[in-house]
């Protein structure tokens, strides 16, 4: 696996960890179901592995949009992980 993919996988792993923390905080609250759904979408990104499959999964959306703008607004602690992934994806685009 190329080095860039490893950095991207690391960033995606950090996103999963950040969302899992949010899910733990949301246990027993009305927000839990939505947070669990966002975690599922993030897992889809993680398992996409390859850049092309990741691009297909995202479509024309940013990671921020894919996870849900309203959810992201309510969970700002996840933003650094999302920004790291989007930075990795921009790096891929610049190399292409």
Short description:
This protein is an all-alpha fold and 96 residues long. The protein has 6 helices and no strands. It has helices at residues 3-26, 32-48, 51-58, 63-67, 69-74, 79-95.
How would you sum up this structure, described in words?
By secondary structure, this protein is mainly alpha-helical. The chain contains 6 helices and no strands. It has helices spanning 3-26, 32-48, 51-58, 63-67, 69-74, 79-95. Helix 2 (32-48) packs antiparallel against helix 3 (51-58). The radius of gyration is 13 Å and the shape is elongated. The mean pLDDT is 87.
* Helical proportion, percent range: over 70%
Question: Could you give a short account of the major beta sheet?
Answer: none
Strand content: under 5%
What is the helix tally?
Answer: 6
Mean pLDDT across every amino acid position: 87
Distance between the termini: 17 Å
- Any low-confidence stretches, pLDDT <50, length ≥5? none
Please trace the helix and strand order, writing H or E for each element. Answer: HHHHHH
Structural Rg: 13 Å
């Amino acid at each position: 696996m190329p080095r860039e993919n490893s950095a991207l996988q690391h960033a995606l792993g950090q996103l999963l960890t950040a969302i899992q923390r949010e899910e733990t905080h949301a246990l027993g609250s009305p927000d839990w179901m939505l947070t669990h759904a966002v975690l599922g979408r993030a897992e889809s990104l993680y398992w996409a592995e390859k850049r092309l499959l990741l691009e297909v999964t995202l479509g024309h959306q940013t990671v921020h949009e894919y996870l849900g703008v309203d959810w992201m607004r309510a969970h700002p602690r996840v933003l650094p992980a999302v920004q790291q992934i989007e930075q990795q994806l921009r790096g891929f685009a610049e190399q292409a």
